[in-house]
Predict the 3D structure of the following.
Amino acid sequence: MYNPQPGDRLESLDTPSMIVDLDLMEANIAKLMGRLLPAGVNIRPHLKTTKSPILARKLIDAGAKGGCVAKLSEAEVMTAGGIEDILITCEVVGPVKVARLVELFRQYPAVKTVIDSEVGASALDAALAESGLKPPLQVLIDVNVGQNRTGVAPGEPALALARHIGGLKYLKLVGVQGYEGHLQHLHDRQEREGKCRAAMAVLSGTADLLRRNGFDIPTVTTGGTGTAEFCATCPGITEVQPGSFIFMDTDYRNAVGRFYSNSLTILATVISKPEPGRAVIDAGLKSLTTDSGFAEPKDLPGVTYVPNGDEHGSLTWQDGPGLAIGDRVEMIPSHIDPTINLHDFYYAHRQGVIEEIWPVATRGKVQ
Ligand SMILES: Cc1ncc(COP(=O)(O)O)c(C=O)c1O
């Protein structure tokens, strides 16, 4: 029976398989911690990338404090996996979800969430009141710092929401979140830094406004792989939330460079060679996402990839023998988070020998 185990070599894996180069991954973690911890900020990595309590634990062991998730269903898996200090970075809205959050909070009181509306705050407060739970749920106000996704407008509108939350018995305002997702992939470093610092001034300015009006705002949280190094040294920022740095992808590499390495690839096999200069691999849309461009073959200069539907992809080249049927190639994903969401397991190896196998525990947890 096919049952890969630690100690096996990569050659024993069937394909497509998601593999992680442990030396590169560990170096990425060490680089991030070395770069950001000296600035004195808390590092709360976004676990929407790794989707694994095992990897969250590795990040905590390396210096992170807690983690972020996007969705409530991810929080359920992370807490059950022992990662209890969790911030849900998307609004929890609707009676079904609110009831689930209350149940999660009953078991794991360190769970926190963001809020960007009075309606959302009141609904959570009412459900908590009904639950009979005593301690308040910690919440952060989600502030729009320019991404124009969720988030209340900075300044007075955020203050009005703070006042509303202040009047609710079962919520405790502990901070603000302002995610500048629109800046993460700006290629020009100076432009990225300048715009990031401007967005951070808006966020910390809002935190100060709340403080001047009597609110205790210990946490000001923000940042991703493309901006965390700038956020960490912006006045008033207390916490950063990078996620992709641990594995990277071609989109991030093209934008921010090679400080972090591409440590995760999809191992694929050439299954057909229909014509000179073209080989077909067993990795298509169901193995590699395409929203941020096509994946790239690793260490095969001059060879390019296009998907050929769900299960196939073509690698093409101009000169030389290129690839033969049965060859194996490693594909570097173009967008890491949704690519990981396509796979069941990580096979983590060191120089070709599998050391650990991690389930993608929050795969499909989109609720
Ligand atoms: C709220 C929030 N914080 C942090 C991140 C982490 O970003 P990245 O994976 O680009 O480092 C994301 C990613 O989408 C996010 O939505």
Summary: The chain has a mean pLDDT of 98. Residues 22-247 form a domain with the TIM Barrel fold (CATH 3.20.20.10).
